[in-house]
Design brief:
CATH architecture of the largest domain in chain A: 2-Layer Sandwich
Largest sheet of chain A: 7 strands, mixed
Oligomer: homotetramer
CATH superfamily of the largest domain in chain A: Dihydrodipicolinate Reductase, domain 2
Number of strands of chain A: 13
Order of helices and strands of chain A: EHEHEHEHEHEHEHEHEEHEEEH
CATH topology of the largest domain in chain A: Dihydrodipicolinate Reductase, domain 2
Helix content of chain A: 25-40%
Amino acid sequence: MSPDRLKVAVIGAAGYGGGELLRLLLAHPGADVRQAASRRFAGEPVALVHPNLRSLRPLVFCRPEEISPCDVLFLSLPNGESMKSMDRWLKTGTKVVDLGADFRLRRAEDWKQWYESDHQCPDLLDRFVYGIPEINRAAIRSASCVAGPGCEAIASILGLRPLVRHGLVRGGAVVIDAKMGSSAAGARPSDSTHHPERAGAVRSYRPTGHRHTVEISRILEAEGANFSLYVTATAIDMVRGILVTIHVFPDAGAVTEKDVWKAYRAEYGDSPFVRIVKENRGLYRFPEPKILQGTNFCEIGFELENGGRRLVVMSALDNLVKGAAGNAVQCFNLMAGFPETTGLEFPGLHPV
Amino acid sequence: MSPDRLKVAVIGAAGYGGGELLRLLLAHPGADVRQAASRRFAGEPVALVHPNLRSLRPLVFCRPEEISPCDVLFLSLPNGESMKSMDRWLKTGTKVVDLGADFRLRRAEDWKQWYESDHQCPDLLDRFVYGIPEINRAAIRSASCVAGPGCEAIASILGLRPLVRHGLVRGGAVVIDAKMGSSAAGARPSDSTHHPERAGAVRSYRPTGHRHTVEISRILEAEGANFSLYVTATAIDMVRGILVTIHVFPDAGAVTEKDVWKAYRAEYGDSPFVRIVKENRGLYRFPEPKILQGTNFCEIGFELENGGRRLVVMSALDNLVKGAAGNAVQCFNLMAGFPETTGLEFPGLHPV
Amino acid sequence: MSPDRLKVAVIGAAGYGGGELLRLLLAHPGADVRQAASRRFAGEPVALVHPNLRSLRPLVFCRPEEISPCDVLFLSLPNGESMKSMDRWLKTGTKVVDLGADFRLRRAEDWKQWYESDHQCPDLLDRFVYGIPEINRAAIRSASCVAGPGCEAIASILGLRPLVRHGLVRGGAVVIDAKMGSSAAGARPSDSTHHPERAGAVRSYRPTGHRHTVEISRILEAEGANFSLYVTATAIDMVRGILVTIHVFPDAGAVTEKDVWKAYRAEYGDSPFVRIVKENRGLYRFPEPKILQGTNFCEIGFELENGGRRLVVMSALDNLVKGAAGNAVQCFNLMAGFPETTGLEFPGLHPV
Amino acid sequence: MSPDRLKVAVIGAAGYGGGELLRLLLAHPGADVRQAASRRFAGEPVALVHPNLRSLRPLVFCRPEEISPCDVLFLSLPNGESMKSMDRWLKTGTKVVDLGADFRLRRAEDWKQWYESDHQCPDLLDRFVYGIPEINRAAIRSASCVAGPGCEAIASILGLRPLVRHGLVRGGAVVIDAKMGSSAAGARPSDSTHHPERAGAVRSYRPTGHRHTVEISRILEAEGANFSLYVTATAIDMVRGILVTIHVFPDAGAVTEKDVWKAYRAEYGDSPFVRIVKENRGLYRFPEPKILQGTNFCEIGFELENGGRRLVVMSALDNLVKGAAGNAVQCFNLMAGFPETTGLEFPGLHPV
């Protein structure tokens, strides 16, 4: 065992986010995966649930209670679950990365309003850093607790925040029209994910009131945004991936392509996982989740219309990687002092 | 209400087979759909479960116990369910069409061996006619009880029986390699039909021991077949449809294309729903379930190899129509004296 | 031949719109399909290209020049093609229904701006009625020339026009975010429709500047709309179908659900093919193109947010039926004095 | 540049196999990709065609004629192309790995019979080693020329050869029923790969006479097989992946599970990329191409029936990786003295 490897464990390891954490961490040169917990599958081999892990180091699910102290503890649980025992997890892991929603918001009243329940440990909210490396790199480096954002939030924030910071859009209305794959609904079957019903669907499952709205709003407000943010989410026939099409009406009229390029370049010049994609030829002229499957990239593109008075931003990523587990490993790299891209080098497949 | 219309009812109407029965019967000029029963959805509008029926006559699910006497009672229940109360259903419907497996086999011992339970009313087995119009037209016309076959069985029997009857294959081994859509698993969600797992799958869910083997075997044995029949079923990414690829080794060496054409033409010359598809040009040279969605057609094609010593037969249909509800309506047409194609005229879509 | 049946012919019959016209017209009790023309496939059986038509009346493609005079001539050609010979076609068909874009716009300068070429017969533009029965029923009844709209235009206009007419939205910005199936691209293969590239794609192929914008704008302006209309089109993994998600910001603040219901009911009370879909239970709570495949329905739904200051309208249809051929047959029914729904009764499939 | 890295080049680099070669070799610690040739795309950036390579080292396609001498030259060309200039390529590359069909067969008459043309350099056939490391490891290690097999051939040979070598099947008939993804047809669009036609298809595109039959036969005959081998290929709705379902009738009656396990273990005990998958629980009980996307694994499973008188073998792989480019890199590793798994460690995704 290399002395440089950190002891890590994953709770909620049988879910899709948990499975991706295992895939990435088991191959990560700086991580020593000690335990993987799942209440439902305790005692079963990890490969029963995640057959892609068959050829990696064998691992058996333990129960969450059996998790031993470790350097970094990853939690990938349904909303409302991690807060129930966060006191305990903070003692188990020297550092904690929580992929769920529980610690993404600063204010307990935001939780109450959007998740319709009282937050169970509001005093801990301040200890968590919002885990998007591209906007919070320094804070994550020194953080002991990181809250991994929602996948729509990551895609949307990465697409919008540079525009806000560079004064291209601050007021008015912004509409995020999100196209979602089925894995975003998690690993538990339900009527709505039954294949004959879900295949081929173009289902407006959340036309208004999407919970990630508040995450996105808070981050952008911190940069001066004062717009009305609306999120509409449509489930399409795709397993992995999300494309957010963001409809923006720049302030004070016209914006130029150069303005937009400048904003993105300034913000992401040193971000290895953000790619600005705006080609005038080929089939992949704009961000495309299809080719991002398995990768940690977020692709961002845009197009202007009506003399710059309307701007369409497209942002794509793999909801289980850059939208969840990969982004968490990227945070882990920063927290541990590894190069930011360690273990996240997979370039993606074409065709797929 | 036309005096010619028969009163019909459907039990198990919330399932996929039941939904197709409703779609077909509600538009059928000779059927007056009086009731649709579902234990799970009793009291709910039919369109809640089958949204395609929104614009047809409104109907509310009743409980099975509430079904009133009718001319023809259709049952579309999970295996083992209809036999529990068949005594009762035979009193409810003047005629009964059961789409489940319970009354497909003549011999109770076959049921026991393949379905691993005792048949609960073996004395009723003889009252049911095996409901494939193309092979049993006369018997169905005069039947009061019809058992609708399994979808693989219909596709396979229609492909193989002419070959057996015309002496092209009687002994040796026959392999049926079936490619199945997800709707064949029914309307209840499970781990295996969860979209992220089922989408893109090529799942060998039944490499050996498929239950429809016995149905097919019994029918073919009655025509003199003496071969070992093997069925392998693979689930593919499709909702509706089945293609069986049947690998046949003709007896006594060489068979010619002419022999095979002759056998099919002789058997299906008067069968409006069987199409022999064997083109030498175009994209749809052989049977293709894709374009049969919603139709009552069974397409059959073939190709010879090795000087006629090997024969591949392909047979395709929509598992919910010709493989279940449409076939049952075709039986109903015969039982009621309507033209065989009544209410089953939909030609299918292209592209789709 | 019934004396009531009208002689019809289809030019461009090998395309997807043309194939759907044949499917619908061959089964139409009031249509006698005399000829089907295709330059590329002249001399070939129609079923070579449209295998779903195998069991309908056999037909062989002729060349466009061979089309004889008929009662109603349908044209389904690529943009810019029908105008080349419209003088001739007006002599061939007593009435003409053109499914292409050439005669959808009233003003030649609109054509020039959006299609980047001079219109070749601007003097004929006035003879064509814009063919959406739900908004133009009387005019279509007495028309001799009908221009079938684009599929995004039909879906969008049916969703938006009642809101404009009832004063719910007139100014500001409206964003149409369209999710499109691959059949909208037509029957000709290209790099972008190659299955390995197109399958699984979420392709922003037209983020801005969609040509249907002008069609939609002109229709809505005629009702008093004065908003900026923006269309963004994304290709998703679907063959048939379109969902437009329309993001609307009602004028003068708050709108209520009742206002919106009232507008739709007033406009579509007598329209058999428009369904308002807004359920609070079930999987199909909003419009869903999946279950509309093969049908002539347009489903419209909506949801309000932010105290009625934002409205999401969803509108779904089958781009080849209500978005093209079915809508054209609906116009034909009106032009010929048949009941509006004749030949368009297919209710759709579930699951599919 | 590390002195240990070999200079490599790829001809046919714009195709799907070529793209995968670039993906794997650009990330390979022992390969220095010097050039990538494509006649069609010469002068264009590689990422125009393979957008997944955007974040790897930029590369511009050159013309095949511009390829400079290198240590290992990879060719990934349509059938019949590499033989046209193999004399030249043998001078360009110190070693050559050809992924096409041209040099897979030992006998020119086999080529003539199955590819219906004269082989243009029959004298070179003997210089090529058939490139399946699992069966030819030693020969590949010392080879200067390797012919990469067809994807069905690799899957089928890996499934069948142990059975032949261990005397479980030698005579009789063996049927390979292959389910194929669309990427196997290559990167060029055609009518048959047009998305509206290809999506949802279950197309029996090669019921008999598949060319890979001869490859498989020759390899198995060398181990004593004397059976009639039949291949039926069906295209299903999948981009990457192949599952071959092999229907085997063991000689001399009964075979036991233990016999089969023993044969596979003996042959693949030291093969890192072959996994025997035969679970009695979980969703992934047998080989599944879905979870092998992007990986170099071949999964093999089996099930016995009828007292061991019938055996179904399932073999799955990613046709572009273990079925082409990954397998070629595995050969390259052996030829270069690298560990066999170098650059091929990707474990695959779940769900996907």
